[in-house]
Amino acid sequence: MNRDENIVSSRMVTIPVSGDGMQDEEYSFAAMWQTIFKRKLIVLGVTALIFTGIAVHTFRAKPVYESVVRLQIDPGRTANLGLEDVVNERIGSEDVDTRMQTEVKLIQSDSVAARVIGAMSLAQRPEFMGKGAILAQTDLKAMSPGQRQGILGNFQRSLAVRIVPNTQLVEIRFRSTDPRLATDVANSVAEQYMQRNFQAHYEGAVQVSRWLSQQMEELQGKAVDAQQKLAEFQKNHNILGESESENIVTDRLKLLNQQVTEAEADRIVKEAKHRMAETGDAELIASTIPTPTLQVLRGQEAELKSQIAQLNSKFGSGYPKVREAQTQLARLQSAIGSEIENVGKRLNEDYRSAAKTESLLRDQFNAQKGAAYKLNEYAVQFSVLKHEVETSRELYDTLQVKLKVAGVTAGLNSSYISVVDPADIPATPVEPKVRANLVIGLFGGLLTGLLLAFLTESFDDTVSTSAELEMFTGLPVLCSIPVNTFPRLKGMVGAAATPPPRPMLMINPRSQAAEAFRGLRTSILLTTPDLQPKVIAIVSSVASEGKTTVASNLGVCFAQRGESVLLIDADLRRSSLHSQFGLPYSPAGLTTMLTQRTNGSAVVTPLESLPGLKLLPAGPHPPNPAELLGSKRMVEVLEGFSAEYDRIILDTPPILSVADSLALSNLADAVVLIVRSGVARRKAVLRVRDLLLRSKANLVGIVFNCANLQLENYYGSQGYGKAMSTYYRSNDEGVAE
């Protein structure tokens, strides 16, 4: 089989490709946790910054004290001369909540505030106005509009009035940096509010008293005329008492109606019992209409049945005592049947008697109802006359009483307001709330940090996890290589400072990274189990993604398996494969083989530490690397080495930087794409994938390099990652396998 046939026949891996795999991605809780862990510095930094700012502001703020006065306000006693008592009986009571809200607005009014400011000379007190803001005038009317609005606004901002729910209590709260001033102002607000209400109600009481005197004579005449008309109507129509309902006809109708209702209810109950007795169901009758005799018989029957069951189980049905008991049971059941028949007859008689009584009472009720209809013809007129008499009489009597006590009421009508708890000097400040502010700062900072972390993550186009990489590329991730951390080598001077220039598999073959490379080797071999790839190209989208590191360690893996492996440094522009093994730069290499047709054995460098592994350096940098790598000579070189070595690994340049790798990828049996965590961008990876597939390269999968194992789903948590690290330590570090 020639070289081209070998290349074509080895490409048997079908790679699913989706146009945009991210559309199907679900942002699960695990993905959210990965984002938080990844951006933990942002979350912690923002949380600390906001928490520190709020804490500094809280501890530097000046303490504010609040004093409280509690008043009881009875809105039912706020009327002048009690006239609302008369009006409410006619038009309904006013909404109590509305009146309480009105009283609250009066307490918060500018008029009450002006009284307090003037009485306490607050405009000249620095603890209220602040340093440097003291005014010379104490009277608000003498101040300019700007000064007046300023001091009133300052007062209203410090004042708070609220109604205690489901009570008649109102709380007046005033805040100040001086606890004594807060107490004095709160008490003064309550006092000035009560004085204002006293004056307003006194003046209203005097005005109402004058109006009442003018209306008394007219009301007296109307009341006398209405009483005379009502008396004459009662005399002409034989109505007794003061109500149209107070007569013999209506009283008898009410009595008959009650008796008919009771008789009907009694008949329904007895009819139900009669229907139940007709069913003949002994158990139902005994449970619903129990009689002493029936209950005794039923008890005896149950006891006898129990005895028969015991005798049958013990001696059989032919036993004499069993027959004797069965005979007794038959007689007992006959007695129960007779008793049920007697109960049915008795219930039938009760039902017929109740039905007859109901019929007689209903006939009397219908006859009495006809007589009541005739009486109702005069009820409307009587009601109108009576209502007029009662209204005139009640209004006249009420106004007469109010007029007599108007002088006393005018001085006492503000007593619906009382002080329940006067204000005391507060012992502790209400602001700043240290604990609440610190909690708000902590959770607010944490929430802000989380939002900023997710916002940063939404703008981040780099790849973080292997699952994410598989999701949007549609390609399998062959392995995830953790961040390369060289272990300390005991007994080596300077070992902790500078790692030796060798692959990880040669430095620490028991590390996580070494095991990941072995998994990569297995994954590549399993991609084409029938015809294993011989030429493997290692590619990446951009530089510094770890192609050379992966190529060197993969070569060591195959060599440790007992194969003869050739590592070819095909990056003719920036060769570095020789430095992975601590070898110096070689002037002869792949370039000299392609340009001067040098023999391969003359430029291949063997490695003493691993006999099965050899290195072909890049050699000098040519002016036309793309043409050399895509030439027929390159195909001949690979065919020659394929006959000599079991495995050939190509370290290629970045695909998006130069076009060299595409030519080599088409010559390889398998192509492995290296993607570095936190470096490779999604668009770049997708671009490389599309270029390789369009060039018919056998792209078998992706190696996720420098993976953070704590973000990988299959490690789950930091604890498991530490356990894996401990498992892979060498025995010379004192850790058992």
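(the above was protein one; protein two follows)
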Amino acid sequence: MGRYILPWFGGGPAVWSNCLLFFQVVLLGGYAYAHWLGSRPDPRLQALVHIALLLASLYFLPIGPHAASWKPAAIDNPSGRILLLLAATVGGPYLMLSATGPLLQRWLTLVTPGKTPWSFYALSNLGSFVALLSYPFAIEPFLRLPSQGWIWSVLYAAFVILCGWTGWRMSSAAVANLVTEPDNEASRRPTVWTALFWLALSTCSSILLVATTNQLSQDIAVNPFLWVAALSVYLLTFILAFYGERAYNRTLFAVATGLFAPVACVVPSLTSALSLRSQLALYLAALFMGCMLCHGELARSRPPALYLTQFYLAIAAGGAIGGVFVALVAPRIFSDFSEYPIGLATACLLGFLGWLRSGALKQWTSQNLAVRIPLMALLLGGLTAIVAAVAGSNQTNVATARNFYGILRVTERADSNGPLHELRHGQTRHGLQYLNGPQRTWPTTYYGPHSGVAIALNALDRSPRRVGIIGLGTGTMAAWGRPEDTFRFYEINPDVETIAQKWFTFLKDSKARTQIVLGDARIQLERELSSGLADRFDLLAVDAFSSDAIPVHLLTAECAEVYRRRLTPGGLLLLHISNRALDLEPVARGMAQYLGWKAVQFISGDDPRTGESSSRWVLMTANTGYLERTGMARQLSGWGPRPPLVWTDDFASLWHVLRF
């Protein structure tokens, strides 16, 4: 479902964060339902209720966002729409699936009293782990989205039959073996403080998961494969912690977390000195250590099997609280990713509290180094991370804006041409402008005079020119405007417009008439067509693929038809395909092949003298005589070895275009 809706909401990490939030909140609902149902005294009632709800959940099949009305219409934070969409499409089946683990383990204790069910929790997480890792490599590259939805729906129907049959058999066996609560089990009922400790540990690990995902997206790449890596590490720690006691070495993980926490807090300030692989390794190592500490302490403090649904409910509640904090609260109270060092600090301090709960304070005073060293490491990590959170909130940028789409930073620096302002979103540069003299009007970065879009635009022999640009950035393209031209920008992030208007002057200095349309570009282009108010463009430049979580829906055959309808006869379509992690050249060629148009590529290099950045632009047009007439052929670059690749709305895999 995340793959379905990712393109609709801009393709950023916040979409994944909201999917995780839905996963955690509905997991809480499933665990609460399992706790309530498992507490009913009549096993037959439990079975009948669960079978009825399983059958009701079949109403949601086949899964998929079948109504186009779910696509966002407004430019406001779409978190609520994402959560409602997921609830309406997979809410019922996922609620039943999420309740299965704790409910079946509860039934196991009824049928076979005394049997330890905890290894089944590890098995459940192992299933999630395998499915998560296999999806981007074994499923997505080979199956279209509707096919995936139908296969999943058939498998879910089979699950409903098996789970219902299991519940019915359980009810008969449980009635025969029904036993009362043993006195020794009742005496070990968890206290309120113990339940709060479970809640805090689970909340902390959830914060670490989502905050690490955001940090990876900001400092390394906005790449779905990295999101899968973080969630896989999170699930792996659950598997290791609950499968057996040997995997969680308390001393080792206390020391390791205390050391990795300050290291991970320093990584954002060392991005220029560390390779991307080193950054990824440090972030994932810190996530593994922190989650292993939290989940290891959870496993150590688990109650008797009689109270397992209460225990799982606390874990799910903590996961939901952590997800709500990072996805909904943090963007409104922090201008930076302060939740990341806060999560690391909390993990260390909760680990410290776990040691104190087991009597470590007495051993500390007896100068036991085996206790003092891990406790000192946890205190060091916790205090250092707190300092990092405070220091990070005081970073000096010209401007910072954080919303659903991430963090935008405007910095001021200087190069050989003088002082400049630069706009970045994580590691992706969205433009720069010189502040002094004639350099202020220079089109820079990917739009300089040697770039493909500048060459194509200047070769247009029409006046006035109507130009559409998908992706505003700093508004640099407006520098190429001439009197009576119209430059119409489409931008999904409203903060980008605010920054472009306040901290850069390309728009206000342009000789052309500039217009800005906020919202998803494809949706806006389609709506303008349906309203009958759509003007055709002489040139349409699509500049939305510089980051690594690209809006795939802007590269599909269906979107190509929208581009065709929005261009004048013989108009020019340009795709900016500069990307560190993805080779989009085959997709661009595939789009041209689908349209039956001629496609050429322009590759330009860095030029510090003009502030230009290296760029790759693909131009495609139905006007086959355009290139020869403008004498542009000598400026073209050749194609790579990969064959053309046509993406569609229901089949587009990043796996095929990864740079290895």
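Reviewer note on protein two: DSSP finds 22 helices and eleven strands in the chain.
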